[in-house]
Amino acid sequence: MQDHTRLNFADANDGAVPLWALGADALGGWLDTQSDDVRVWVEAQGFKANAGAVCTVPGAGGAIAMALAGLGDAKSQARERFAMASVATKLPAGTYQITSEHTAKELDEHALGWLLSQYTFETYRTQPPHDARLVCPDGVDRDRIEAIAAGEALTRDLINTPASDMGPDKLEAAARALAKSHGAKINVVTGDALLEQNFPMIHTVGRASATPPRLIDITWGTGGPTLVLVGKGVCFDTGGLNIKPGASMGLMKKDMGGSATVLGLAHMIMALDLKLQLRVLIPAVENSIDGNAYRPQDILTSRKGLTVEINNTDAEGRLVLADALALADETPPDLMICMATLTGAARVAVGPDISPFFTGDVLFADALREGARQVCDPVWELPFHDPYERLIEPGIADLDNAPKGGFAGTITAALFLRRFVTNTPRFAHFDIYGWQPTAAPGRPKGGVGMGARAILASLPKALNL
């Protein structure tokens, strides 16, 4: 993965330029406290403290004496996160230090937004650097914010890398590198060994690819509550024999966004040395087309023993996740979280910016919502609606991987996964998008982490850390 040293704070504040981050309603009062020269200069520049606006004020000899950052009015602040990220990309090169007063939550958002604004994907093309650096604001946990930014950068790098360089083998290599960097253990079951060790659906979905399927298993930590993260690692999804149209296949390099997100979250957890026992499971496959590809109307027997009728080979993510979830459920953790770019129905329901989640655990749901608000990582709970269970029961087998009719596709997929988690009371499933369709502050167009920061913020309360 790339070197992201720019996603760290400046080490010293000697000579740092004072940075005043001001909302539109606070600008007038601030100007009243300044000298006539500063007031006249700022007004002459037309600075209104609109969101993302920048104004530099010269001092003796023309050097920058201070800088102003616009945070916008209440409406714009409610509509857009990370106004400081826009500021960071507009300021001249140099080191800056936030001088204005803010709440702890605001300072955390400003600090994280600044670091996230420094991300560029440069594997294939050099991008212009953003050379405005920030001194970590007083009261902000530097290690935590830098760990979050690094985890997010890892997620983005993995999703942005095309399948030609991010197949199941390369995803394994990234997982191995992460495990090594944190002293974690890793075990990988590959190819026909999946059948020997009873992961039949992972093998079936991935067997048509030139790169063998595999199950990646990372463990870390020796004490505390147990947490399992399961991430969908479909490195490219053609749709299989139910092949996708070209327009729908164009973004399928991101179909491993669940695995990318859990690896980014795992980095955050390990870098911060949270007192828990972590396990990360990633079924890594390509859903390809060949003579041995699985077919519509095939009936598969899962690791758990449940049979699954295949009514669409393009509903493959839930199949590979099912075997991984069943494995984790055999030694029930205190909390199990599944993350996947699973259904288009989730995007129709909440769009690309919100992470919908399902859980029967009220404590986790409450902790997650609170954490999401704290770290500007929006989530929304959808229901495990039991009456829809009949929609995933085809009659000829225990389960249907692609119910007809099109209703409640996000919910039926979640219910399908829940069938494989029978021993773990505390289970949550996230149906994320993993892609930023248009650039936004701190989030360039491309791969993006969703839900990881909210989960990280929720863990102390959810697991009593």
In total, the number of domains comes to 2
Report, as a whole number of angstroms, the end-to-end distance: 31 Å
User: What fold name stands as the CATH topology of the largest domain?
Assistant: Aminopeptidase
The secondary-structure class comes to alpha/beta
Strand content: 15-25%
Low-confidence stretches: none
Proportion in helices: 25-40%
- Give the C-alpha Rg: 24 Å
How many strands?
19
CATH structural architecture of the largest domain: 3-Layer(aba) Sandwich
Write down the CATH class of the largest domain.
Alpha Beta
Number of helices: 16
Overall residue-averaged pLDDT value: 96
Main beta sheet: 9 strands, mixed
Mass-distribution shape: elongated
What is the CATH superfamily label of the largest domain? Zn peptidases
Protein name: Leucyl aminopeptidase
Family: Belongs to the peptidase M17 family.
Domain Cytosol aminopeptidase: 312-319
Organism: Litoreibacter meonggei
